[in-house]
Automatic annotation (TrEMBL):
InterPro entries: NagB/RpiA_transferase-like, Ribose5P_isomerase_typA_subgr, Ribose5P_isomerase_type_A. The keyword Cell division does not apply. Its EC number is 5.3.1.6. The active site is at E115 (proton acceptor). Homotetramer. Catalyzes the reversible conversion of ribose-5-phosphate to ribulose 5-phosphate. Keywords: Isomerase. It comes from Methanogenium organophilum. GO terms for cellular component: cytosol. Pathway: Carbohydrate degradation; pentose phosphate pathway; D-ribose 5-phosphate from D-ribulose 5-phosphate (non-oxidative stage): step 1/1. The lineage of its organism: Archaea, Methanobacteriati, Methanobacteriota, Stenosarchaea group, Methanomicrobia. This is Ribose-5-phosphate isomerase A. One of its GO terms (biological process) is pentose-phosphate shunt, non-oxidative branch. Belongs to the ribose 5-phosphate isomerase family. GO terms for molecular function: ribose-5-phosphate isomerase activity.
Amino acid sequence: MYMTSSSVGESDQNVSKKNAGYYAAELVRDGMVVGLGTGSTVFYAMERLAEKIRDGMNIVGIPTSYQAECRAREYGIPLATLHDYTELDIAIDGADQIDPKGFLIKGRGAAQTQERCVAAASRLFVVVADVSKQTPSLSAPVPVEVIPSAASLAAKMLSAMGGTPVVREGVKKDGPVITDNGNWIIDCTFAEIPDPLALETDINNIPGVLSCGIFAEFTEKSKIVIGKKESAEIMLF
Ligand SMILES: O=C[C@H](O)[C@H](O)[C@H](O)COP(=O)(O)O
């Protein structure tokens, strides 16, 4: 169990995210190379890592998106890339849904491709999420990053797999969302996902697809940290 002191006015969900993020930061040791995931929950881990760096800890962070990179720079976390390190000690990342077996849906921030690369390179994959992310089964639309010229082909193949694909459009921009890698995102809804690992493999094998948001392949090296209002706990593993 790990508890943080919360500021007055913080929402219960933010306090839960902070508890998860701070718990994960305590798993990081001096000298480690640390994958820095994307999203609001990981930012709390970065916040705590920044405190530890100010207290003398040395780490190097590998960001998974421009968003993560910008936040890490604000916090003064030294950065490198997967060109510099192909083996990481630990990666800390968020999730949008977590099922009872520890399978995930990620990618609301459209960052799942770089997140997958960093997760693959890491010895330990630490997932941080508030309790609202736990679901009985994976049901959220699966984000699929695809090169623009292959989007229609990918959509057709996703439909053949039983999905309902929709190209994600920007909130602050007309037209498709453009990922950090210059691609599009298809959000694909499935009525059910009985075998997440098989669907992850099938989608990732579609020509032109870089990566989908189902993360089932890293479960064996995962630690899932669930943040609640009062504390954070490890789920299952
Ligand atoms: O692309 C985005 C990532 O997969 C995030 O880790 C995920 O969306 C969770 O973000 P948050 O911690 O803000 O809920």
